């Protein structure tokens, strides 16, 4: 008998889609940083897809300096609580409903010669960005955070000295915005905007923009 084909249909997250000047991939416009999550677990298969996507990112010398520590409320609750404990109080307040937390780390030296890898954090950022795009394709969302203690994370997981923690991020299915406190609801629904292309794409040389705008929505 011929093999059975099984198709999975995933609902895209169309909340607060980013308007753009020029057409881009829909996954990029749908990628956002929610604070409202459902309690629906993220399956092991989905996590494997996400981190496989992260591993496909480009890196200097093909070093792939990224490392990830993952804590799932469903399957690795102790690790989840350790990561949660590294977060700033503000972040802890809304993160608790996210089903998965992860630490991204960068190896600070090249494996082939032991020299410092000045591009490691850049490459980790590329890996997490790729993961986030894959997540949007699967109806999952990621919220990356800088509000955490790298020292606490290193202590909690006994991170070797040649690695540094870059960020913490959530992984989960977006939930009802109304479940958040009012101030966070406003952040969640604030119009998503980005600087116009002319303010950051400089073909041919370095211009002197009349002004820089830093009042844009951050997500």
From TrEMBL:
<feature type="domain" description="Nitroreductase">
    <location>
        <begin position="29"/>
        <end position="173"/>
    </location>
</feature>
<protein>
    <submittedName>
        <fullName>Nitroreductase family protein</fullName>
    </submittedName>
</protein>
<dbReference type="Pfam" id="PF00881">
    <property type="entry name" value="Nitroreductase"/>
</dbReference>
<dbReference type="InterPro" id="IPR000415">
    <property type="entry name" value="Nitroreductase-like"/>
</dbReference>
<dbReference type="InterPro" id="IPR029479">
    <property type="entry name" value="Nitroreductase"/>
</dbReference>
<comment type="similarity">
    <text>Belongs to the nitroreductase family.</text>
</comment>
<keyword id="KW-0560">Oxidoreductase</keyword>
């Amino acid at each position: 008998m011929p093999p059975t084909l099984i198709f999975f249909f995933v609902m895209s997250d169309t909340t607060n889609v980013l308007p753009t000047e020029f057409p881009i991939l829909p996954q990029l416009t749908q990628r956002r940083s929610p604070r409202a999550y459902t309690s629906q677990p993220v399956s092991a298969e989905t996590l494997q897809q996400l981190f496989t996507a992260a591993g496909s990112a480009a890196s200097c010398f093909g070093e792939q300096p990224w490392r990830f520590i993952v804590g799932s409320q469903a399957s690795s609750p102790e690790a989840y609580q350790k990561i949660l404990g590294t977060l700033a109080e503000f972040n802890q307040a809304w993160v608790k409903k996210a089903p998965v937390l992860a630490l991204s780390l960068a190896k600070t030296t090249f494996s082939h010669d032991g020299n410092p890898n000045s591009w490691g954090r850049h490459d980790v950022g590329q890996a997490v960005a790729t993961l986030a795009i894959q997540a949007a394709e699967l109806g999952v969302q990621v919220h990356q955070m800088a509000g955490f203690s790298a020292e606490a994370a290193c202590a909690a997981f006994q991170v070797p000295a040649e690695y540094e923690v870059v960020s913490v991020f959530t992984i989960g299915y977006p939930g009802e915005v109304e479940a958040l406190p009012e101030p966070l609801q406003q952040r969640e629904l604030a119009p998503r905007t980005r600087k116009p292309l002319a303010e950051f794409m400089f073909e041919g040389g370095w211009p002197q923009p009349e002004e820089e705008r830093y009042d844009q929505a951050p997500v």
